[in-house]
Amino acid sequence: MTILVDDCRWAHKDHVWCHMVSDTSLEELHDFAEQLGIPPRAFHGDHYDLPQYVRDKATVLGAVEVSSKELVRRLGAAGLRLTAKQRRAFKHQDPPSS
């Protein structure tokens, strides 16, 4: 079980954002997100977007800091990475229920 977060680099709406993924399962990822109080709308098919202050909380709870390149590699190795086309299609679906 490993939850991974990359560096916060993407500025949007007064925050700098990063990605959070699991290298094991989406169920693990959703459970961890729920512990952090992250709303389902932050899930984008294979990752959650987190602002810096939530990333900090995630690392305290055990998320492992990795580079963006490593995060994508491990997400792909776990078979959880969506293609760009799949991510676009996911945006038009209802968010997962808790």
Task: Tell me what you see in this structure.
The structure is a single chain. This protein has 98 residues and is an alpha+beta fold. It has one domain. Helices cover 38% and strands 20% of the residues. The protein has four helices and five strands; from the N terminus they run E-E-E-H-E-H-E-H-H. Strands 1, 2, 3, 4 and 5 form a five-stranded mixed sheet that branches. The model has no long low-confidence stretch (mean pLDDT 88). Residues 3-76 form the DUF4031 domain. InterPro entries: DUF4031. Pfam families: DUF4031.
Our measurement of the CA-to-CA distance between the termini, rounded to an integer number of angstroms, reads 20 Å
Radius of gyration: 12 Å
Largest sheet features: 5 strands, mixed
Helix content: 25-40%
Strand content: 15-25%
The count of DSSP E runs of length 2 or more, i.e. the number of strands, is 5
Q: Unreliable runs, pLDDT <50, ≥5 residues?
A: none
In N-to-C order, the SSE pattern is: EEEHEHEHH
Overall geometric form: globular
Structural class: alpha+beta
Domain DUF4031: 3-76
Pfam families: DUF4031
InterPro entries: DUF4031
Key words describing this protein structure:
98 residues, alpha+beta, DUF4031, 4 helices, 5-stranded mixed beta sheet
How would you summarize the topology of this molecule?
Blueprint: E1 3-5, E2 10-12, E3 15-22, H1 26-36, E4 48-51, H2 52-60, E5 64-65, H3 68-77, H4 84-90
Parallel strand pairs: 1-5
Antiparallel strand pairs: 1-3, 2-3, 3-4
